[in-house]
Amino acid sequence: MTDIITNILVCGTGGQGVMTAAEILAQAAITKGFDCKKSEVAGMAQRGGVVTSHVRFGKRVWSPVITPGTADILVAFEVAEGSRWADMLRPGGIAMVNTIRLVPPVVSMGLFKYPDDPVAQMRAAGVTVYDFDAGAIARDLGDLKLVNTIMLGAIADFLPFPASELEEQIVGRFRERKPAMVEVNKRAFDAGREAARQRAAGNSPMAANS
Amino acid sequence: MSAAVKAMPQSRLLLSGNDAIARGVWEAGVKVAAAYPGTPSTEILESLSQYPDLYAEWSVNEKVALEVAIGGSMSGARSFCAMKHVGLNVASDAFMTVTVAGVVGGLVIAVADDVGMSSSQNEQDSRFWGRFAHVPILEPADSQEAYEMAKYAFELSEAYNTPVLLRLTTRVCHVKAVVQVGERNPIQISGFKSDARRWVMTPANAKGRLPEQIAREGKLQELAEASPLNVLEPGSDRRIGFVTSGPAYMHVRESFPDAPVLKLGFSYPVPMALIEKLAAQVDHLVVVEETEPLMEHDIKAAGLLTIHGKDLLPRLGELTPNILIPAIKTFLGEPIPPATTYPKFEPFPRPPTMCAACPHMGVYYSLARMRKKVQISGDIGCYTLGAGHPWNALDTTISMGASMGIALGMDKARSEETKDKAVVAVIGDSTFLHMGMQGMLDIVYNRGNVTTLILDNRTTGMTGGQNHAGTGKGLKGDDAPRVDFVKLVEALGVAPERIRKIDPYMLPVVFKTIKQEIETPGPSVIITDRPCVLSEFYEKIKPYRVVDEDCTGCGNCINVGCPAITVRKSESKTRADGKVNELKFTTIDTAMCTGCHMCVESCGPKAIVPAQPVAVAE
Ligand SMILES: Cc1ncc(C[n+]2csc(CCOP(=O)(O)OP(=O)(O)O)c2C)c(N)n1
Ligand code: SF4
Ligand code: SF4
């Protein structure tokens, strides 16, 4: 094992499943024998606030927080949240972004503006962004809760362990509690992987409008 | 359930600091554990309550929690209590004297500081209490240490006849890290033995014990010098040696891997000989501690005057690498590496909102309608959000239970301008039972002109939904006696006809009741009765939708504050008299709506109608 630490920042809004995704990543890392720390900053019990979770793993992890400018991967469950945390990425890090726009009341009331195109903003600043509509994929698969699995699938090929081990970590959870969900989660995971692969290759049909 | 509960000895688990502490406490053979919830400490007792063969309770407040633990300790059982930093302020009266009396069964108090203030009304450094009460402090830096120190703290407590403070911060409580757990010690309870000189803290008895307390502190200092929890880690770059404790240690190791570090897990009394040993090896000694310069002052007081600490580092918040590195490099005269490559976008704030159908919204909707006529003294809970958008209907928040005392003070200090304003106190059910009853009694006793709104949502919402003496359930979800708020306030002396129980969903009733009560002099109480939407008692009703053709854009429903209602379209319209009207046409997210019908009541043109449920959105 090298001394290299992998830093993954998962972000989104309250109730989107950010914590669960980070937890699965962390579990996969310790199953691989890595030392791992996972830090959470959740607001209060109420909904809708900004949520982030820092996952760090490697041979020996000291600080539980990712230093700004050192994240390898940013997993954004919401597009403006992706832009909020983009500065956490290291040069060459990637932002995996679900393009859903969750408009908070302060915006819909007209007190603040939601950026027209947060992805374009990030790209203009030089950030490598792989964006896709995870909600649409989940809907096609028949369950919006699959967004979590899709987003994890999307980053699976960018981790220092095989994608299959992350998949097993997700699927294993369902195998015990809801075996009926195993197959659809596998498909969601693969769909996420495929979406990210397409974006990485730059040949997604969505490239034109983002 | 915490993964640790069923874990076999020697298993390696990913545990939060809170879950790790619970495991350590259980393994230590604790019999009595008590707490009142508070971020970031809440999960310790939630987790502990799942272990077998141990008594665990939600107490009504932190002082009672500590007293329960003291009673357990006096009876010869290892006993534990947990609280957030401000909880120890509440418990401090008992704390400051039990430290004189000492313990029989090990007594450990876990106190969690919200360094960085993610969810608190202040940032305070609980390590002060060690110095104030002459008790030792253990400071874990991660989950493994939290587990080990929790277990060890009971031995320390018994060996030195002292309560022990286990000082935590948010970055210990809420960080998950790898922990290897062990086995449970057998429980031993010697039983209470009457000994007035020991336990009855009259001046004569207490005075007799004071010299012992001071002597104990000296012995603890010797122990700290030799403790395996205090480690001098060598380093090749000897320009700076760091003295540090808690999670700050992790940030120091991350930032300066080659520097010598004295890591203090047993951080009070400060082991001065170890510090001098480090000082002799390095050019400069820097103390890195969250948050106040306590070790720094102790070290300076012992004569090492040239050390550094808060002259270089902030006195507030976390000392993470992005803070430490530039500060230390500046001190060393080295160039500071650019922190980030990509710019910081600040899209828009995303403040937490109340949940869709939160019963508190009905109260604030009404208070906002009469805003000019009322001063609103608030308290701490989800309902503190009433201070924000769109209600702006809360004037004060200081500490738990303070709303009524403050309201009474306001009532007694009126100016020409405020003399006709009504004074209203707003307090949650859990907060009322925690510290509110006394304020209420004071209003009655001193004939205050205050209307108190007790928002009974049958849970402690803010901290994630814990049971309390008013929910009818205990810590484990078991049935428990349930306080009757009407009878309670009546017993405190509020006239029965001035106690009103209402459904906060019935907006016209809420408005009318508040109006009637504030217009009648004398103390009165309005109790709202609807469960929090996250509680087990909440029953979801069918959702609503807005009929576009019927919506006139008046925006009334937005003022309810429900996050399920958003603006679909805005328009400016000039009226006949030349005034410009901002019209806001709304829509309801049917997947979020739980059918409380508060917005229906706010809608004049009756544009909000039942909807068929649709698929759940993310
Ligand atoms: C002394 C103290 N202990 C604990 C807390 C943490 N805390 C904040 S609000 C709250 C209680 C909220 O419950 P309730 O009054 O029922 O209001 P709700 O959130 O349900 O609206 C608690 C325990 C605190 N702020 N201060
Ligand atoms: S958690 Fe309960 S009390 Fe808090 S905002 Fe949500 S519904 Fe209201
Ligand atoms: S009925 Fe109205 S106020 Fe109640 S949850 Fe639905 S949208 Fe919100």
From TrEMBL, chain A:
Pfam families: POR (PF01558). The keyword DNA repair does not apply. InterPro entries: IorB_Oxidoreductase (IPR052198), Pyrv/ketoisovalerate_OxRed_cat (IPR019752), Pyrv_flavodox_OxRed_cen (IPR002869). The keyword Transcription regulation does not apply. Keywords: Oxidoreductase, Pyruvate. Residues 14-194 form the Pyruvate/ketoisovalerate oxidoreductase catalytic domain. One of its GO terms (molecular function) is oxidoreductase activity, acting on the aldehyde or oxo group of donors. NCBIfam families: PRK06853.1-2 (NF005322). PANTHER family: INDOLEPYRUVATE OXIDOREDUCTASE SUBUNIT IORB. This is Indolepyruvate oxidoreductase. It comes from Paramagnetospirillum kuznetsovii.
UniProtKB/TrEMBL annotation, chain B:
GO terms for biological process: small molecule metabolic process. InterPro entries: 4Fe4S_Fe-S-bd (IPR017896), 4Fe4S_Fe_S_CS (IPR017900), HACL1-like (IPR045025), IorA (IPR017721), Pyrv_Fd/Flavodoxin_OxRdtase_N (IPR002880), THDP-binding (IPR029061), TPP_enzyme_TPP-bd (IPR011766), Transketo_C/PFOR_II (IPR009014). Gene3D superfamilies: 3.30.70.3270, 3.40.50.970. Residues 543-572, 584-613 form the 4Fe-4S ferredoxin-type domain. The keyword Oxidoreductase applies. It catalyses: indole-3-pyruvate + 2 oxidized [2Fe-2S]-[ferredoxin] + CoA = (indol-3-yl)acetyl-CoA + 2 reduced [2Fe-2S]-[ferredoxin] + CO2 + H(+). SUPFAM superfamilies: 4Fe-4S ferredoxins, Thiamin diphosphate-binding fold (THDP-binding), TK C-terminal domain-like. [4Fe-4S] cluster 2 binds at C562, C593, C596, C599. Keywords: 4Fe-4S, Electron transport, Iron, Iron-sulfur, Metal-binding, Oxidoreductase, Pyruvate, Transport. Binds 2 [4Fe-4S] clusters. In this family the first cluster has a non-standard and varying [4Fe-4S] binding motif CX(2)CX(2)CX(4-5)CP. It is an enzyme of class 1 (oxidoreductase). Pfam families: Fer4_10, POR_N, TPP_enzyme_C. Its cofactor is [4Fe-4S] cluster. CDD domains: TPP_IOR_alpha, TPP_PYR_PFOR_IOR-alpha_like. Its EC number is 1.2.7.8. [4Fe-4S] cluster 1 binds at C551, C554, C557, C603. GO terms for molecular function: 4 iron, 4 sulfur cluster binding; indolepyruvate ferredoxin oxidoreductase activity; metal ion binding; thiamine pyrophosphate binding. Heterodimer of the IorA and IorB subunits. Catalyzes the ferredoxin-dependent oxidative decarboxylation of arylpyruvates. This is Indolepyruvate oxidoreductase subunit IorA.
